[in-house]
Amino acid sequence: MSTETVDERAGHRRSLTVLSLTTLSGIAAALVSSMLASAATDTIGLYPLAGAIVLQLPLLRLLGVDVEDFGVKDNLYVAFMTFSLWFVTWTILLTTGASL
Asked: If pLDDT is split at 50, 70 and 90, which confidence band does 4 have?
């Protein structure tokens, strides 16, 4: 019984770490995109998103998450969550006309 609790906590901690990193990376990428690109049509705004997605696996390793167990589904989750937060944040920044 106690090993199940430990496994559940470790899995929960892993999920929270991955979720937190993906969402914060997406928001940070949107802020950088807002600084680099002046309009939504500027393709340079995509580079921070690509960089955030690529850098996440090494960052997750540094945070103690075993990324060797990641399958296609996990990698797609990381990319999708990062893209989603980047898209929403950058859209808000572009719509409001905020400048950083």
From this structure: low
pLDDT value of position 38 = 83
Domain count, the chain: 1
Distance in angstroms (rounded) separating the CA atoms of residues 49 and 2? 41
Interatomic CA distance for residues 2 and 31, integer angstroms? 43
Domain that holds residue 66: 2-96
What residues have CB less than 8 Å from 55, skipping those under 6 apart? 25
What's the CA gap between 66 and 97, in Å, rounded?
40
pTM comes to 0.86
